[in-house]
């Protein structure tokens, strides 16, 4: 990013916009009015003069509508001369933010200005330097805030949200984002289901999100109209008052065109979602689109004809027939008139191609393709869309959850940007994803090669433009809405967190908790080079080979080593740290075993004579291989494709288990269902996650025995593929509805206190006697408390010490002291909690909302803590999940402790029995440490297999 414009403008010194004196200006205004009036008279013919007196009422309306038939949406011409915002809340004090480093959004996002910002009346009044003299002149209710050179960006803008329509926690009574009454429903409006009580509003604001486009779900080919909202609460407490520049049609059936129309939004969806709901094929869905657009075109043609005739003087037609209109289809007609931002959930090349042809057939522009996992493979198709290429609104790493997303790539944003296509990162905020961490999507896109200016623009100015709101949000410019975020670090640094968030000039965080960030986090991270990987990904149509290559020599020497983290018994410790670049060390590896680390003389190594493979880490590090847990990685390739999954185990609490399986006492082992070479496994491996621990896939109470496997192994019979055949016994206690939670607990008590002779019975007995680990999936603090009581009950009867681990554990921190006392460990899944369902509603979100995260609270009470994931794609992000926890702890957690959360702690909590330290993988990173954005995994040292893998 070029650090542009160091200029410091005095507010009073800014060039004036006009140079005309007032009375000359009035003269101009009068002459303009006279000329304009005359032209208007000529163009409108005699109807203007006759209409009011002689025409029936409908005719006046029809005439008005005909005259504005070709009006295009957008702000009024003098919009930026406004002196206050239409969203200004009376009583909001003006605020002066001094000494800010402002990313303005101008010059394609390359402009950064060091200046002060004045907010007043809901808008940005000025950007420049305010001296003492001017401060005095400003109003005496002025709030002055010293940003102390902190980064400020526009408020984050989310182009794809279901906030309010799919509110959290997810309760049946308020799921209003998908109508299932038909594939084509352009007449539905997301506004009509917009709930004001969504826990996501404040959480997302705490992530810097200020504006969101709320779209209907994707169950339908045309799901309905979307609406742009600002996330702050309003004095009126209504959905309507949250809207940003809503179209006039929210109040009247048809636009009466007193003003320029405003942008509307229409959700479309291609492919698997609408197909799945309606039993359609792609052919059916596209026909449904064409039929709907054809209907709209017929109405539009009728309107055009009518208006041609009446504006041409067809008096009879005007008095007899009203302007042809249809309330169900008017929004579709508006699409054909170029007044609607068409937002299309569309994944694959086939879908994108279909939709681009549709846009040409019916001549309407597409605002953006959303999700669009294959867009980066077909940029030329996108460029063929009618009028202009659509933007592409993506996730960074979320992929492969269904077939359509199988070729999704972390390199998509950079590839699309290289083709000049507008790149947007979006959240899909709902019970599955959360918009609080939308900025993290941009950070990842940046990590994988999207340039810094475009990465920030991808969550600010670009989505603002794509939703038609670029004239007021998405930038920090004079006259724009006063929506901005003061960050505790550079916005692309891992864990960047708001210090304060302003919406319409109103500070949103009442008492923000701020963590001191290291100096290095105040500049953009120097991300690694992924040019080759990106190129390969395109060449292989999204499925590049991911298997690592073994080093050619038995001896491998890593040079340029800045730090070494090693497992020492149950913890991870920094065992080597170079003071500076001159004292970088080496690590000598023989047949996959680390023999020495330190200076080359300490290791007795003459590199010039060595026949070893030399790997320069350039200030990098060695760290223990990470472990993934929580998602069914290793048991499924594509979540929504049963033919790629192990499938779910039978559950005796719900249905008798067939005798042939062993009856109700059967116990299933995950290791029997392992599949190797999966893309998420290999991607995880390439990101330093060298092992996975997985329990059998289960939908309900009963799971079975977990296993530990290598994420890199080719197949089960290859060396080191299964690291530990059986780990722990897993069950879930959740609010499934029926049987009750109390029945599930009762079952668990019965199994532990009265085990039978079955396979399961023996395992429950071993658990009761403290021999084996029991892992219970539970989130509710009430359920967890009951489990702690049950543990004591069992221990009393058996005089034992039961090894109990809580997995999920979103509310566990509320019992931190009791858990520590009862020696119960917690694996929090996911590491960044959000209240997806009721039993997770009491999250501890961490800064800026609470002083610390739930994980830190548990750790400070000496509870053993691990972290997990909920979906396979997330395994590759483990390094960032853990790095984020460390940076958010503000120095209260060492890097070793952070690494342990996804390695030693996790293994211990899941019944890991591989004790020999020398048996565990080490990961080599170039350019930085495993937990930061500046490093790339280049090798894995595998003592089990006796090799070093290079990538
Ligand atoms: C922004 O980028 C576009 C496309 O790359 C380029 O044409 C334009 O000149 C750039 N504008 C500025 C101000 O850098
Ligand atoms: C809708 O009607 C209300 C009440 O008259 C008014 O305050 C609001 O501005 C109208 N909104 C639009 C978009 O026309
Ligand atoms: C690790 O455990 C061994 C054996 O229990 C012990 O001798 C050694 O001191 C421990 N090392 C550390 C660093 O705690
Ligand atoms: C946690 O353990 C440390 C070290 O053993 C101890 O100093 C501290 O008091 C413990 N904290 C709590 C809350 O028990």
Automatic annotation (TrEMBL):
The residues forming a coiled coil are none
Q: Where does the Amidohydrolase-related domain start and stop, copy by copy? A: 413-504
Q: Does the keyword Transmembrane helix apply?
A: yes
- Top-rank taxon of the source lineage equals Eukaryota
Q: Which Pfam families match?
A: Amidohydro_1
Transmembrane annotation, as ranges: 27-47
Q: Which UniProt keywords apply?
A: Membrane, Transmembrane, Transmembrane helix
Enumerate the SUPFAM superfamilies for this protein: Composite domain of metallo-dependent hydrolases, Metallo-dependent hydrolases
Q: Which PANTHER family match?
A: ALLANTOINASE, AMIDOHYDROLASE 3 DOMAIN-CONTAINING PROTEIN
Q: What is this protein called?
A: Amidohydrolase-related domain-containing protein
Lineage in the entry? Eukaryota, Fungi, Dikarya, Basidiomycota, Agaricomycotina
């Amino acid at each position: 990013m070029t650090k542009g414009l160091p200029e410091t403008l005095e507010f009073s010194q800014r060039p004036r916009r006009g140079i005309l004196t007032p009375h000359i200006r009035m003269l101009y205004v009068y002459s303009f009015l006279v000329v304009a009036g005359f032209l208007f008279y000529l163009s409108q013919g005699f109807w203007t003069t006759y209409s009011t007196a002689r025409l029936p009422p409908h005719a006046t309306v029809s005439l008005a509508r005909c005259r504005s038939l070709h009006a295009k949406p957008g702000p009024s011409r003098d919009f930026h001369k406004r002196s206050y915002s239409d969203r200004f809340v009376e009583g909001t004090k003006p605020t002066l933010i001094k000494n800010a480093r402002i990313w303005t959004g101008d010059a394609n996002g390359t402009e950064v200005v060091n200046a002060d910002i004045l907010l007043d009346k809901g808008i940005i009044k000025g950007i420049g330097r305010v001296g003492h003299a001017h401060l005095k002149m400003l109003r005496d209710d002025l709030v002055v805030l010293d940003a102390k050179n902190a980064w400020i960006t526009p408020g984050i803008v989310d182009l794809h949200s279901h906030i309010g329509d799919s509110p959290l926690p997810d309760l049946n009574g308020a799921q209003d984002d998908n109508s299932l009454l038909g594939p084509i429903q352009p007449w539905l409006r997301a506004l009509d289901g917009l709930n004001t009580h969504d826990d996501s509003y404040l959480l997302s604001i705490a992530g810097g999100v200020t504006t969101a486009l709320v779209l209907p779900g994707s169950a339908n080919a045309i799901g309905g109209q979307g609406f742009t909202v600002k996330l702050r609460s309003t004095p009126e407490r209504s959905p309507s008052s949250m809207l940003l520049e809503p179209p006039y049609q929210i109040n009247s059936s048809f636009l009466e065109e007193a003003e320029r129309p405003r942008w509307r939004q229409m959700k479309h969806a291609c492919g698997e979602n609408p197909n799945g709901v309606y039993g359609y094929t792609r052919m059916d869905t596209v026909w449904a689109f064409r039929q709907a657009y054809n209907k709209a075109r017929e109405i539009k043609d009728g309107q055009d004809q009518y208006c041609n005739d009446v504006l041409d003087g067809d008096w009879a037609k005007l008095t007899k027939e009203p302007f042809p209109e249809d309330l169900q289809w008017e929004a579709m007609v508006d699409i054909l008139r170029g007044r609607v931002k068409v937002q299309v959930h569309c994944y694959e090349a086939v879908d994108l191609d279909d939709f681009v042809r549709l846009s040409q057939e019916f001549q309407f522009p597409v605002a953006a393709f959303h999700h669009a996992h294959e867009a980066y493979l077909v940029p030329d198709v996108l460029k063929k869309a009618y009028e202009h290429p659509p933007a592409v609104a993506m996730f960074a790493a979320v992929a492969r959850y269904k077939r359509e997303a199988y070729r999704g790539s972390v390199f998509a944003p950079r590839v699309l940007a290289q083709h000049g296509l507008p790149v947007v990162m979006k959240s899909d905020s709902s019970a599955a994803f959360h918009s609080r961490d939308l900025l993290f999507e941009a950070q990842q896109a940046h990590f994988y090669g999207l340039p810094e200016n475009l990465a920030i623009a991808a969550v600010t100015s670009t989505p603002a433009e794509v939703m038609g709101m670029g004239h007021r949000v998405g930038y920090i410019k004079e006259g724009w809405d006063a929506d901005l975020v003061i960050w505790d670090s550079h916005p692309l640094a891992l864990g960047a967190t708001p210090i304060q968030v302003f919406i319409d000039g109103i500070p949103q965080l009442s008492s923000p908790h701020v963590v001191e960030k290291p100096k290095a986090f105040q500049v953009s991270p120097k991300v690694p080079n992924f040019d080759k990987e990106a190129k390969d990904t395109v060449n292989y149509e999204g499925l590049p080979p991911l298997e690592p290559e073994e080093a050619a020599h038995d001896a491998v020497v890593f040079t340029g080593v800045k730090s070494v983290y090693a497992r020492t018994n149950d913890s991870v410790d920094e065992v080597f740290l170079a003071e500076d670049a001159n004292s970088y060390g080496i690590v000598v590896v023989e047949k996959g075993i680390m023999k020495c680390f330190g200076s080359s003389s300490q290791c007795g190594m003459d590199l010039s004579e060595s026949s070893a493979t030399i790997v320069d880490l350039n200030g990098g590090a060695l760290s223990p291989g990470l472990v993934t847990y929580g998602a069914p990685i290793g048991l499924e390739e594509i979540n929504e494709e049963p033919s790629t999954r192990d499938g779910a185990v039978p559950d005796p609490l719900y249905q008798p288990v067939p005798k042939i399986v062993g009856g109700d006492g059967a116990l299933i082992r995950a290791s029997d269902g392992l599949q190797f070479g999966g893309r998420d496994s290999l991607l995880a491996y390439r990101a330093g996650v060298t092992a996975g621990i997985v329990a059998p896939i289960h939908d309900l109470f009963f799971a079975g025995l977990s296993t530990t496997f290598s994420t890199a192994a080719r197949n089960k019979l290859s060396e080191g593929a299964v690291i530990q055949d059986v780990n722990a016994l897993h069950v879930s206690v959740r609010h499934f509805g029926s049987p009750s939670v109390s029945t599930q607990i009762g079952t668990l008590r019965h199994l532990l206190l009265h085990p039978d002779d079955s396979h399961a019975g023996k395992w429950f007995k071993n658990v009761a006697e403290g021999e084996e680990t029991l892992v219970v999936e539970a989130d509710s603090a009430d359920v967890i408390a009951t489990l702690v009581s049950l543990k004591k009950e069992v221990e009393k009867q058996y005089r034992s010490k039961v090894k109990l681990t809580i997995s999920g554990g979103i509310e566990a921190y509320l019992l931190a002291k009791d858990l520590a006392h009862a020696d119960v460990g917690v694996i929090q899944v996911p590491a960044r909690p959000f209240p997806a369902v009721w039993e997770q509603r009491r999250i501890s979100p961490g800064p800026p909302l609470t002083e610390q995260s739930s994980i830190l609270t548990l750790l400070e009470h000496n509870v053993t803590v691990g972290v997990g994931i909920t979906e396979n794609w997330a395994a590759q992000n483990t390094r960032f999940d853990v790095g984020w926890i460390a940076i958010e702890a503000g120095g209260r957690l060492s890097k070793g402790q952070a690494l342990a959360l996804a390695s030693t702690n996790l293994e211990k909590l899941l019944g890991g029995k591989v004790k020999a330290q020398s048996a565990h993988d080490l990961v080599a990173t170039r350019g930085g440490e495993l937990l930061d954005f500046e490093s790339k995994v280049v090798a894995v040292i595998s003592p089990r297999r006796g090799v070093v893998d290079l990538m």
